[in-house]
């Protein structure tokens, strides 16, 4: 049994999708970051950086924060969703790290400066908008040549990237326009992932929770 500490955000949805794909037993515990629950001592003991998601695997005693590490752990625990060796393994990890180091921070900062900052700072909005568009173009180019992002097999790289692409488009419709229409390979990939039962369930993690999502 795995305890998943999470919230209704792109990073929070990633391990939920993986747990559903891998059909692992888990319990999702809400950590409402809108109410600063990520700073409560009980959660900080699990996730010292005060960010969701985090997991505790009751079977192995492993406790982890950082969604990329969690995804890799779940893949290696089960021998699925990550090629076991050779170039496909490292290419998949490369794209996983691309999400963690690039897509998440850039899309996240665009969301903040375009939609939530008390002060409108055009330089910041333009900076993160330009970078977000560029990252979407990188994804389009990758998917024009590869069925999935990591390799020709669906993997934790797809699981890491998909919730962020959904979120950046939903959160910035005016700034990004119809981002899918001009990126047909990304559009094909998104349509396919959106139909996977595990993706549907993971994207809806905690939706029965009474609190509002983000
Ligand atoms: N690199 C981290 C990022 C985690 C992260 O930024 N989580 C956000 C929610 S999507 C969070 O917990 N925010 C609360 C805060 O910043 O106080 C990961 O991939 O797990």
From TrEMBL:
InterPro entries: Glutathione-S-Trfase_C-like (IPR010987), Glutathione-S-Trfase_C_sf (IPR036282), Glutathione_S-Trfase (IPR040079), Glutathione_S-Trfase_N (IPR004045), GST_C (IPR004046), Thioredoxin-like_sf (IPR036249). This is Glutathione S-transferase family protein. Residues 85-212 form the GST C-terminal domain. One of its GO terms (molecular function) is transferase activity. PANTHER family: GLUTATHIONE S-TRANSFERASE GSTA (PTHR44051:SF8), GLUTATHIONE S-TRANSFERASE-RELATED (PTHR44051). CDD domains: GST_N_Ure2p_like (cd03048). Residues 1-82 form the GST N-terminal domain. Keywords: Transferase. SUPFAM superfamilies: GST C-terminal domain-like (SSF47616), Thioredoxin-like (SSF52833). Transmembrane segments: none annotated.
């Amino acid at each position: 049994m795995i305890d998943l500490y999470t919230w209704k955000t792109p990073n929070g949805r990633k391990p939920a999708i993986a747990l559903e794909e891998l059909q692992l037993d888990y319990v999702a515990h809400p950590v409402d970051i809108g109410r600063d629950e990520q700073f409560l001592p009980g959660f900080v003991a699990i996730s010292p950086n005060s960010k969701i998601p985090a997991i505790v695997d009751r079977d192995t005693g492993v406790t982890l924060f950082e969604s990329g590490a969690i995804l890799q752990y779940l893949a290696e625990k089960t021998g699925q969703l990550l090629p076991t060796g050779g170039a496909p393994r490292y290419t998949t990890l490369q794209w996983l790290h691309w999400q963690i180091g690039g897509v998440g921070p850039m899309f996240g900062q665009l969301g903040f400066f375009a939609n939530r900052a008390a002060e409108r700072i055009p330089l910041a909005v333009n900076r993160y908008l330009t970078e977000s568009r560029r990252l979407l173009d990188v994804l389009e180019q990758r998917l024009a040549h590869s069925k999935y992002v990591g390799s020709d097999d669906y993997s934790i790289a797809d699981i890491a990237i998909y919730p962020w692409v959904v979120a950046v488009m939903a959160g910035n419709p005016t700034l990004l326009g119809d981002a899918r229409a001009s990126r047909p390979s990304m559009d094909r990939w998104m349509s396919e992932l959106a139909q996977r039962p595990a993706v549907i369930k993971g994207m809806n993690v905690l939706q029965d929770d009474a609190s509002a999502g983000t």
